Fold this protein.
Amino acid sequence: MKAIIPVAGAGTKLRPHTYTQPKALIPLAGRTILSIIVDQLVDAGITEFVFVVGYLGEKIQHYVEKKYPQLTCYFVQQNSREGTGHALSLTRDVVGDDEMLIVLGDTIVETDFRALIASPYSMLGLKKVDDPRNFGVAELDEEGNITRVVEKPQIPKSNLALVGVYKIKESRQLFECLQSNIENQVKSHDEFQLTDALECMIQHGVRFNGFKVSNWFDCGRKDTLLETNAILLKKYKLASNPVLPYENTIIIPPVSIGEGCNIKNSIIGPNVAIGDNTVINYSIVKDSIIGSFSNLYEVVLKSSLIGSDANIRGLSQSLNIGDNTEIDLG
């Protein structure tokens, strides 16, 4: 089985950070979004990965090859962003007829991946949501079989959202439906959607079962990314990343601090993740994510997302600063 992870999106909802950093590599609870996904699948026994890359794809490839040299990885280029269906259609030559596990590159879920892989049927991850109009939606019959899927319906007939995890046994049928939709310009919301290809498979008799996920974390916007960071910091407890003593500094857990950081005269936490080699002095930081190689001096930050190589001096309450930025608030 191969794992397919589409990470070609531009991450427009997380700009300015995604101008210089792929969304999948944004730090989260001492890791990255992508590493959390890959580690879950490696723990479940998957060793072959296909990454669909595009915008800043060379950073994805460099990161994966450096962090996971033991894995067999393929990188497929998506030059034009035409939706998840189009992205997956590009992997046909690499995947062939192998079974596949598709996990969208901004999707972090908690589920039993080993049981999912062992299932004799194709499976779609589902989660009940209050407003399903912003998601792909699945409709089930009385026996729990999926009878229909539709992308972002205006009048949903179900509150079961597709969470972005798909186990596909019938790969050939999927690629045939993807190709047919592209040739016939079958689009939803102006893009070729994976959801439409799955609906094509259902109409041709392929059986899909749903599986529930215990947690589904949204990493697509600043506010929900910070919420996810706080939840995962508490969950991981960072047993493998102990917080070292810093000069005249109070650490309020949960906090993740990267290697090579220099922190003095500050209060850090709770719910803070700091990248490697960052310098913080005379500052208060809480409920925030700080990138690597940044420099903070005399600032008060809360609910902030700070990119790498940023320099901030002065006083602030809430910032959304991209990479390679210099700000003097004094």
About this structure: The two ends are 55 Å apart (CA to CA). Helices lie at 33-43, 57-67, 84-89, 92-95, 113-118, 171-183, 194-203, 222-236. The chain has a mean pLDDT of 88. The first helix runs from residue 33 to 43.
